[in-house]
Amino acid sequence: MKEAVNHSWTDSITSADIVISVMVIAALIVLWVSVLLLRVVRFYVKESINPTPFATAEEKEQRRLEEEARRALEKNKPTIWSKLMQLKPIEDEAELVMDHQFDGISELNNPTPAWFMALFYGTIIFGIGYLLNYHVFHYGKSQEEEYVAEVQKAADDKIAFLASPENAASAVNENNIVLSKDAAVLKNGQALFATRCPPCHGDHAQGLVGPNLTDEYWLHGGKIKDVFKTIKYGVPEKGMIAWEKSMSAQQISDIANYVLSLQGTKPAGPKAPQGNKE
Ligand code: HEC
Question: Which of 72, 200, 235, 278 could anchor a disulfide with 209, C-beta 3.0 to 4.6 Å?
Answer without folding.
Answer: 200
